[in-house]
Amino acid sequence: MAKIIDGKAVSASVKAAVAQEVAALKEQGISVGLAVVIVGDDPASRIYVNNKKKACASCGIESFEYALSGDTTEEELLELVEKLNQDKKVNGILVQLPLPRQIDEHKVIEAISPKKDVDAFNAVNVGKIMIGDFDFLPCTPSGCMDLIDSTSVSVEGKRCVVIGRSNIVGKPMAMLLLHRNGTVTICHSRTKDLKEICRQADILVAAVGKPNFVTADMVKEGAVVIDVGMNRLENGKLCGDVDFEAVSQVAEWITPVPGGVGPMTIATLMRNTLTAAKIQNGLS
Ligand code: GUN
Fold first, then answer.
1. Which domains does the chain possess?
2. What is the pLDDT of residues 189-199, one digit of tens each?
3. 94 in ligand 1 pocket by Cβ < 6 Å?
């Protein structure tokens, strides 16, 4: 039976460390602030944004919410981003994705100052990650690395398989595993022999967006399984990409959903916002 990787506990310790540093900065007269922008009323995005605001409060980080209506134009959003780029009280800018159809997500991401891009989504920060010289790591993959580290399983030389190739999770996740000297394979919807490739993984990261996609026959005995999935079922229950019950019988370590990767994503966002504030104040 697999051991559970406790994302809530790991995230609590990351947030506690951030809170301590934020308090120390406050004593020097430096405040830390995050602007959170949400456009429209997607219920999942609303929950994520509320959780991010709560985390800010628990770390002593000021949050500034900008809730814009679903018919906001691209120009209006770009204007707000530019205003936040200039705002000294705002150290980090997070524009919650997805955005409504009339807005080009790419344009908005690129409009955020790289120094305030705490998601690490814009091309400058993605490029920095690629060459291994970065200020911020993207929140979800970085959180996954912390969870892997919490098991004490070393990535070095291990076969790592990432299922999913999104810019937000799959691609940067593969890069972070590569930085740790993992032997990395990225699988996606066109991959042939997916099951056989996954079965070779010592570390398997699922970021597919399909409930129970990873079944026990796709998992090697003793593997570390990280489930990035956040799928809402018809009955309202949250469910990952991994068939948790069955895969728990095969894996050595596994993340639950909820309580695994989700809380870590937010903890990393807090850490990135703190880093942004330190850099902007010449402290890092
Ligand atoms: N939507 C889903 N995940 C994320 C994330 O990590 N950052 C932002 N900005 N939007 C998201």
1. 30-114 (3.40.50.10860), 139-262 (3.40.50.720)
2. 999 999 999 99
3. yes
